[in-house]
Amino acid sequence: MQHERPVQILIAPDSFKDCLGALEVAGALGRGIQRFLPDAGIVMVPMADGGEGTVESIIHATGGKLVRVGVSDPLGRPVESFFGISGDGQIAVIEMAAASGIELLEPGERNPWITSTAGTGQLIRHALDRGCTSFLLGIGGSATNDGGTGMASALGIRFLDERGKPVNPGGGALGALRRIDMSGLDPRIGQAKIRVACDVTNPLTGPEGASVVYGPQKGADPEMVKALDHNLARLARLIDEQLGIKIDRIPGAGAAGGLGAGLMAFLGAELVKGFDMVATTVGLEEEVARADLVITGEGRMDRQTRFGKTPHGVALMARKRGKPVIGVAGTLDEGYEELYDHGFRAIFPILEKPSDLAYAIEHARELLERTGERIARMISLSR
Fold first, then answer.
1. Residue at 155 is within a domain
2. What are 292-325's pLDDT values in tens digits?
């Protein structure tokens, strides 16, 4: 009698935010599956969409390493940060939130008039010092509205007022900006390839721009929002006049308080979809092709999941290859049923009884393991 070959399962989830990283989620699901299907072939590819967890995902997939360094936080104070280097030592993976993120500040400290992206520029410089020639940047979760000028300053570009003196850090000081001096830019940038994960389409200024849409959550009142928008418009005009680059209306220029614009204008970066950037780097499509079944998920799955989120990207890739996809979520919210029209065969919440968020977070590992076991039992029925 011929034995059926073991099922090959790819587990490619995003992190469960404020709870478990993507690798921990994948590991827990895998342990649960192997309780009931000990011979199952399991491959884990922790995923991200360019935000939190991007460094972990890529260093896991490439056999890379985490590098811890000291940089400046958004208010210029020393803070321990990190970035990743791929296994071949060539690619630096940077999450700007690790240096210039809003989570580094107490609520009362949030002030986009003075916060700076200098720490992100320092991370780039540290990676250059270690020989990296390619950069992947995730720019979600910023505390800043400085158009990337702090980042650029850390790499040698000078932003000068009418007296030729450097302007102060932060979006508020851009009102005094008169000249951009590119002469001191680190020459290694010219040889580097820089890709930026950016899933927002906001322009730099105007009603849909960085200041108006995102300024309030970073601590800006209506008067400050108006001034910050005016200052970013000045920056855009100077970039046009002095660098010959029309940056203001490019989709994504307003990401991370205008850091998207700064990375494009000052470093020649390319903005790409976050999921696509990570999926290409970790070789996700090749792993999907080898699998019989794909499992993905995130902390909450709902109608918004299909707008650029990791599980939706994984499901689309699997559907293209004709592979069934199962979703796993901490909670299911309004509109999750729509995901069945986007490649998902089944979607499992991990909670087994009415529970609050604190319980779900505390018991997430065991709940994921038990969910993995339920999935394995369902697989055995289908086989």
1. yes
2. 999 999 999 998 898 878 999 999 999 999 999 9
The CATH number that applies at residue 66 is 3.90.1510.10
Assess if residue 9 is contained within a domain: no
Please name the helix (run of DSSP H) or strand (run of DSSP E) that holds residue 328, with its range, or none.
strand 325-332
Beta strands in 77-181 (DSSP E): 78-85, 91-95, 134-138, 158-160, 179-181
340 Cβ contact list (under 8 Å, min separation 6): 347
Domain contains 78: yes
Neighbouring-strand partners of residue 93 = 84, 136
The residue segments making up the domain with residue 87 are: 54-274
Torsions phi, psi of 141, nearest 5?
80, 30
Q: What is the pTM of this model?
A: 0.90
Count CB atoms within 10 A of the CB of residue 207: 9
* Residue 11 domain-assigned (yes or no): no
* The token pair that represents 383 in the structure block: 């086989």
Number of domains the chain contains = 1
Tokens read off for 362: 């505390």
